[in-house]
Amino acid sequence: MSDKPAVVLVHGFWGGAAHWAKVIVELARKGYTSLHAVEMPLTSLAEDAERTRKMVAQLKGPVLLVGHSYGGAVITEAGDQSNVVGLVYIAAFAPDAGESPGGITQHHLPVAAPNLEPDSDGYLWLKADKFHESFCQDLTADEALVMAVTQKAPLATTFSDTITAPAWEKKPSWYQISSEDRMIAPENQQKMSARLNARKVITLAASHASLASKPAEVAAFIDEAATQTAINGQ
């Protein structure tokens, strides 16, 4: 198993590390023994990137960073560490220098944009009764209910935090587009993936929650990226 890199999974907005549950099981079945899912505060890009850097710094050997949704912005900011051998984007933001998730979102507003609402403390929530149709329409009602009730809201200001130096300019990358995504418009995903010079781009007929609705396909894609980094001697 020593030829497999450590995999660090980075969640997005409106969820935590447990959103990776099914992918973790699939990767473990493929022989990955160094699996880690960072739990971020979702308070600012700088703080979330620092939390991710600290986890990566604790790991020996090569690390593959995998980001879902806003987690893509985090791995873009935090992926410059020397032991990071690749970046995998799962229906994720992949901003360029000076770009923010909020700015990219404005290019093509997602279908579910009206279903977001701030609270009096500045946190931005996805309306619980709209969670299923917005975030994970291809999951069961029970799965969506749990996601809605356990959602982790970000500070709304995090949307406008910008990337300093994108790690994808120096690190090999892979991108999975969700064609039925209602949280990040597929048009925005297509544009971001096209400029990455990615080793591979795939499209899944999935909601924003492809990591939960298509875990076998997502895990296979991560495995393919990991295998490629090993072949390249990273």
UniProtKB/TrEMBL annotation:
Q: Which InterPro entries match?
A: AB_hydrolase_1 (IPR000073), AB_hydrolase_fold (IPR029058), Sec-Metab_Biosynth_Hydrolase (IPR052897)
Extract the coiled-coil ranges from the record. none
AB hydrolase-1 domain residues are: 7-220
Tell me where on the tree of life, at the top rank, the source sits.
Bacteria
Q: Identify a single GO molecular function assigned to this protein.
A: hydrolase activity
List keywords of the entry alphabetically.
Answer: Hydrolase
Under Pfam families, the record lists: Abhydrolase_6
Name of this protein: Hydrolase
Its taxonomic path starts at: Bacteria, Pseudomonadati, Pseudomonadota, Betaproteobacteria, Burkholderiales
